[in-house]
User: Fold these one by one.
Assistant:
Number 1:
Amino acid sequence: NEDGTQVRLLQVAALRIMNPQGLVLAVLGRHEGGVCKPHCALPGQRIPSGCQPREIADRFLETRLQGLQRWLKVDENFELVAKESDAKKASVATQYRKATFNITAKPGMPWHK
C-alpha cells in the first residue's frame, strides 16, 4: 500500500442469483477433508491473479452451474466492494475485493425451498 506495508490481495466473484419471488440461491456448506462444514455464502470463487471478475463469473456459470445456465440472465454491471482486515490464516493484512454479479432466474426455473 501507500506506506510500504505489505498487503495481500484476495479477490472473489460472487453470484447473487434471485428468482422472481425474491428467493436467493445460497451455498450452505463446504466439504473439506472428508468433513462437511457449515458455510452460508453466495456461490462463486476466487479470482486468480491476471483474471477479470466477469471472466471468472462466466466460467463459473459455464462449469459449476452449467445445468442452470439457460435459466439465468446476468446483469451487465457488477458491484465491487473492498475492505481491508487482518487475515485469520495469514500474518499479513489482507485486502478483500468482492465483485457481486446480480443474476435473475427466469420464470419456470425449477426452484426448491
Number 2:
Amino acid sequence: KDISLREKSVEIEELSNKLACLEESRESYTRETSGAAVRERHLWARSERKYDALQVVRSNIQQLSIELNFIRCEFVSAMAEIKKNTDFSFHALNEKLRSEVKKC
C-alpha cells in the first residue's frame, strides 16, 4: 500500500510539474501573440499614416500641375506678345532702312 501511495504521489508531482510547464507555455504564447497583435496594430497605424502622407503628396502634385499649366499659358502668351512686338519692330526697321536707301 505504501508503494502504491508513493507511486501515486510521484505521479501527481510529475503531472503537477507538467501542468506548471503547460501553464508557463500558455502564458508565454499569450504574451507573444499579444505582442504580435500590438506590433500588427502599430504596423497598420504606420501604414495608414504613410498612406495619408502619400495622399497629401498626391494632392500637392496635382496642385503644382495646375499651377505649372497656368505658368505655361502665361509664358506662351508672353512669348507670342514678344514675337508680335519683335516682328513689328523688324518691320518698322525694314521700312526705315528702305526709305533711307531710297534717299540715297
Number 3:
Amino acid sequence: RISLSQTGQHVDYTLRVVFEGRETWTLRKRFNEVAALHDVLQRRLHDVPELPAKSMVRHFSSEYLEARKARLSAYLKALCKRRDAMNCREVQEFFGLTTQQPAFAQ
C-alpha cells in the first residue's frame, strides 16, 4: 500500500510492506528511488513492468499525485508477484527485507 506526503519540492511515498502476511513495516521512498530500481531490473530481467513516466515538470496537483500513486502501487505489486524480481538483492534492499528479516541479511 502506498500513501504520499508532499514535503517542500518533492513527494515522499510511504510504502507499507507486508511480509508473508504476518509482519509489516513502512518505508519512505521518492520516485527517483523507484526509477533507479527499475533501471537495475531492466538490465537484469525480461519483461519488467512499465514504470510510470518521469515528469519533466514538477506536478504537485492532487489529481496528478493520486494518479501517480496508483500507477506506482500497481508497478510495485507487479514486481512483488515475480519470483525473479524478488530474488534480486536490490529488490530485497528496496523493500527493507535485508534489514527487517534476518534470513535476507546474509
